[in-house]
Each structure stands twice: as C-alpha cells, then as structure tokens.
Design a protein that fits this description.
7-stranded mixed beta sheet, alpha+beta, flat, 907 residues, 26 helices
Amino acid sequence: MKIELQYSEQTIHTTRAAFIRGTEPKVWLQEINRWNISPEQFACYLVPASHQSIQAIGLVVVFKSEEIALKVDAPYPYALLVNKLLVPTNARLFPVVNDNELQQLLLYDIHFFHPTIGLVGYKKENQLNLADLFQVHPATDTLWHFAKDGIKPNPPFQKISINQANLDDVLQSFSDQIDKKPLDEIPDKEGDNSGGSNITDAITRTFLKGALSMGKKLDNALENMAMGNTGVNGEPGAFDSDYWNTGPGPLDRFNKWANDKLNELEKKRQKELNRLLDMFDENTDEALRYAIPLDSTFLGRGRANPSSRLTRRSGNFNWRMGGSGGAADYWDVGNRYHELRQKYQLAAEQALQNRDYKKAAYIYAHLLSDFHSAANALEQGSFYRDAAIIHKERFKNIESAAACLERGGLLTEAIDLYLELNRNEKVGDLYTRLKQTDKAKKHYQICVDRAIRKNDYMEAAQLMLAKLKQQKRAMAILLNGWTENKQAVLCLEKYFDTIAPYPKINLSTQAQHVYKNLTPVNKKIAFLKVLDTLKNKYPEQLAKSSKEIAYEIISETYSVEGRTNYLFLLKNFLQNDRLIGSDCSRFVNNKSKVTSPTKLQCIELEKNVIWLTAKVIRNQFLALGSKEGKLYLARGNWFGHIDYYNWDQDISPFTKLDLVVSSYSSNQVIIHSSSHLSIEKKVLPKTINFVDEQVIIHTPRWINNNAIGININLIGRITTLSFANAHEDVLMTTHYNANGEITKTYDCTIDDQLLNDIRNVSYTDLYYNGRRFFFLAKENIVIIDYEGNAQAKRIKGNPKKIVVNDTNESTQIGIMLENGCALLEYNEFFVFSNELNPIDIIFIGQNYLVVTEKYKAYVFDLVTRSTNAIKEFNFTSPVKLSLPTSNRHHCAFLNEKGQINIIDIRK
C-alpha cells in the first residue's frame, strides 16, 4: 500500500515545525533569528534534494512544544503526527492510517514527508548543531585602536505629515460638487428656448450704453453753444435750443429707442431671475448650477458688461478671484434678494439632512458667504482638516483650527498649532495620546513650572497628579501652598484628599502633624474650617483627632482673643451631643447682654484675580476673571464652598467677557469674548458641594464669531443672532441642536430704522422665554419669534440694559435706564424711578426688582408697583454686579475686592 499526501484548502493540523527553503546556511540563520526564540527550544534537520542526492535544499525545524510554535510566523508550517511524522498543516494522509498503524510503519525517530521530495527519516544523532554552521577564524595580531564607528542607524519616525491644503483647495473641493451645464439648454415655462446669447446681449448692452452716453454729451454741447449765440435783432441764433426744440428730433428718437432696448434687456434679466427661483422649486440640484452668489467675496473687482442671461457659475471657481480676480457681472437682484437667500438656506438645510455636507458647505461659503456655517457643515461631515483651514485662514482663529484638527484625530497637525498658542498642557495631552510620553512629560513640566511661578499651587499639583502621576511631588507642592498662604485652604483640602486613599498613611496622624508643625496662629481658624470639611469625608479616620484639634483651637481663640463667634463650630464636631448648641448659646448670652449687629454673609473669592463677570446656573454661581493675563473661573455654592479653574490661554486686558447661561433648563455654559477666544471645554463635575448635574463650560467653535447675541434655550439648544453679510443689511437667527448642528436659519423681518439701530450693537444679552427672543438695541426692546418675525418697543430714558423675568407667568422685562429703572409688562410701561445711577438690575423671585448703584442697592416691589424702594442697602466697597441666589429672598453683590455679599432683602 502506497501512502500519499492529499492537499486541503483549509489548515487541518496544529503547527509543530517549519520548513526553511534555501541552500545557504545564511538564509536559514536569518529566518531563525527573525523568530527571536532560544536554540534550546527547537531541533534542526537538513533536508536533502532527493533520495539520490545529499545536497541540502532546506532545513526543517521542529519545535519542542505547541506553545513555542504559536509564537513563530513559520513560512512553511508542518504538523507532527504521533510524535514522529512531519506533514504540511494543510495536508492529510491518503489512504487514512490510524495512529497505531502509523507507529508501526515509521522506522526512524523523526520523519519529514515533503510533497515532492518524499519521505525522509532522521535518527536523533542526525540533528544539526547550529554552531557547526559557523566558521571561526583564528585570532590575528591586529591593532584596533583606529577603529571608527560604523554607519549610524536612521532615527525612528517621530512625525509623518502630508502636504497641507490651503483655503483655495478647500473651496475648490466645494465647487467640484456642482456640475457645469449651460442654462439655455433648459426651456422657459412657455417653451421658448431662444433667449439669445449672453455674448450678443452683452455687446448690445455695451453699444446702447455707449451710444446713450455719446448722445448726452452731444446734446449738452449743442445746448452750451446755444447759450452763447443770438441772431439778428434778438432773433434766435443758429444754435439756440428753443429754436431747434420744436419737436422730437433724431437724437431724441434715438435716445428713446436705446432706453427701450435697455429696459427690454433688463426685463430679460428679471426673467432669468424668475427662472432661477422656479428652478429651486422644481429641481434644487439643477438650480444650484446657475445660482448667483449673494454678497460673495468670490465676485471680482471689476464689473463686466451685464447680460440678460444667467451665466453658469464655473464649477472650477477659484478662491483667489475673491481678492484679485477678473471682472464679474453683478446682478441687481433688487427685491428678489431675500427670496434667493431663502432658497439658498433651504437648499443648504436639505443638503445637511441628506448628509451631503460638501454641497451644504458650497452653498454657505460660495452663495451666502457664510463661512461659519460652511465650517459647521464640514465638521458634521467629518471633514475636519477642511474646516480647520477655514478657521485658520479665513477667521485667523488658530484655537478653533487646532481644536478641529484634534477632534478629527489629526494630532500632529493640532500639536503644531497648539505650540503657536503656548498651550503646553494640551500639547502634552496630544503627545500622550500618541504614546510619546517623554515629550508629553516635557510639556507638562513646563506647565507645572509656569503655575508655580504664578503661585498657582493648586494647578501645579493637579498637573502633577493627573498628568505626571507624581503623587509625592504633588503633596509637597500642596503643603507649600498651605504654608506660603497661596490658595492655602484649597491646597490643604487637596493634600488630605490626595493622601487619604493610601492605606499606609494614617490620616489622623497627618492632621496632627500639619496642625502642630505647619500651622501658625493666624491660620488656625482656616485649619479648623478645613477640618470641618474633611471630617465629613473621612469620619472614621478623623473622628477623634478632629474633636481634639477643634477643642484646642476654639478654646485658644476665646481665651487669648476673647472671641466667641467660632464657639458654635463645636456642634459640627460633636454631632451626637444634642445639648452642645444650647450650651454654647447660653454661654455666649451670659457673657454679653448686648447683641452685636448682624453681619452680612460674605463669600471671598481669590484676591489676586480681577473678577469681570458672574452668572447663576441652578444652585451655584460662576465668576469669570483674569489673573496675570490668564482666564480664571470660580465655581461656588451659596454656603461658601468654591472651586477654581483656569485656562492656559492669554487674554488681553481689553477683552470683554460674558457668560451665557440658561439658569435652569441646561447645564451648558458658553464663554463669549470680544476677541473671539475659543475656550477649551471643561467639565465641572458633580460633587458633594455641587449636587446638581455636572456643568459643561466652553466656547463652541461652530458659533459665529460675529454673533451679536447668543442664547442657550431648552434642552441645550443654542440660538445666535448675527448679520448675514458685511453690509449688515440682513439680520438672521441661526438655531443649533445640542450637538452644534444647524437645524434652521431664518432671516429676520425688520424695518430699515430698527435695522440701523441694531447695527450699533456690538454684543447684547439675548433672552428667551419659551416663545420669543428679547434684546436691547439702542432705545428699542426688540422681540423676535423663532421664525425671525420681529417687532420692537421703543423706550424713553436711554435704556442701558434689560432683564427678563423667567419665573413669572407673564413676560416681565426690567429696564435699567440711564437715570432710573422701569418695568415693561403686557405693553404697559411703568417707571419706578428716574433719579438713580444704576450699574445693574436683576429680578429676585416673582415679586422684587433690585437696582444696584456703585455703593447702594434698592429693592422695588413688583406687586404694589410703588415708586419708592421698600429696602435700601449701603456698601463700603464699589459693587460690580448683582446676582440672584438659590433663595428667592436673597440677593448677592460682587464688589471690586472679589467679595460676594449676600443680603436678605426682607430685613
């Protein structure tokens, strides 16, 4: 019986050996070296060319186990049957032989069954020793003192980049979406396809205009000659105009004919506009091929001879035509301008719905000259590099361009832009994502050094913990912040939060150490407040030591300074003692029968920050400021707990900042700046001190930089108010969903006088009451519904600011006048006072209007509508702004020292 190998398309055996083809030992050794396994883990046997030749044509390598074989990418894998027979892993024996029969047939220790060579048998002593393949030359007496380094290997790749496109290329890619087709191939509704050629109409129009101009010059010349010529005896001279103007002459008849022809050509142009508008209703894609750019920078500098036919927009339009292009035929679309804009907007929205993002970008950029919306469309379509180019080259907004590249995963390109902005932390984050940890650490360390130079120990420690993973250095930095009185309380809290998770560290012992060795007398009360917070977080670790330290500090404060105001803190540390509160009260009352005046609750923000603005969102407040040219944010609750955040971005001292919030319906916060900063998103977490959901604070790059108003309304939807073009003759509202995608754009219906007043608005608060938007423009309260229909209420008294009461069923609008305040409700205008010098105005609940002067605040009753303030409050420091609180009877005032004073307006 003859046994053969039968081929199978699938692998049917597990690999245990490999066959290396080649007659040279060098080839075998190179392949074995590639496997990176020890020679002790395999055995080698030479494979002869045939039964008649002992010339080696290869080497078979048998691995000691299947585990080792799995690590090897074998070129020709072989299986080991019954521990003796090597066959290809994709071949079987034919006819089938069971294991017992196979054991009896095999005579040698190892058998190699090759499809063409046949069966080769090996005894154990036939195993090849790889060392025999090397020839060792005897040592020679050679001096190696003059040996030189060999060729150094090429350094590993650090960055791979491609040729960057420019704005021309991006915009060209938009226009490539539109096919080229002459308009005269499409018949009119009447079936007339003989509109004449553009060239003929252009020549005719040029001739007629030239002829009319020459005729006018000739007519003027004759009239001038007549003025200086008189005939005999006072009769009219030969060139007297009254003598010649006895009826229409040849020149008059020619002028009338030429004007009629020009009017006829203009009618043909209007007919083409009608055709274009009709085409949008019938076939949008076809209409886009002939659409006229409105207010477009693509139009050339010169003015071509107008024609009566719509010319096909070149499918290969060039961005450079916008700056130095040739002449263009400017169409006077007249009252069809808004109709065309509406058609274009609808076409763009339809393209977005169809996920044809390039076409939408073409419409926005080329036809509407709305590059913000074009970039938005590109980001929706994941064309991040194209969108980044628009941000960088069109708007000179490197921050937005870098963020766009980062979102698209183009990290090396984003790094280059972030380096321009000195955003080292962001650069470190991106290098971390690229697994280039050494470079990442370098940039993180730059940030740490910068933070320490600014005495921002919290920021430095956060970087150490979160980015560099160096807990010991972070702990040292935090203790430095405590001892050097720089963010002392925050640093101490963070220090204990950092060491708490380590089981080997005794938190109680550490608290005693910091108190005894690192806390001077003037910081003991601050230490007590920190301890009051920590004992709730770590009650088991700090229960005993916190009581002992509290007793010591409070008793020392009373015995040395005679102060009893901290005595009541004892009840926080002795929660099981129900009598401690009453005992403290009795002790204090016995010490003094004269009660001290009630002090206002005061929350102190960091003093080294210039606080610029503040807003309330849910049950917390956000204050925005600058410190040493960087942006700072304080997040606080009304019980005095404050968290600080900052951005590694430069901010000019002349930059105006505003926080756009929706007090209750959304957790989004937008930072708007007059210098169009693109603020990196920060997520402020939900914590024990901020029990509401997390707060997301950022500046979406898809928001129009030229927006004069921004509003966050229901479910995080955002609406912007901006001008559609550089001429500022079209005001539009753009509505975005929570993901930043454009859902609808409307042109506002506004009369010319109101539009002129709105042009003077650089930025304004935009309010929304669930139905309509409100904002102030000069002396007008402008009201716009969701579809852009606008009306206005003119206000006397030079209004400076408005606020909308969103807690009342009716729409109440508080108005800060130049010298006073007023209320607008149900078209009823009520003046509370015209003798104030207000700097701010807010509603408190449904019943109160608070008007703030620099050193004084007044409370007016909305129910009685009395012109006299029901309460007045005086301040010793200049007030910057006022805020509502989570309590409907409380009002807060931020002064120039960074203090927030909270007042109960009922007292």
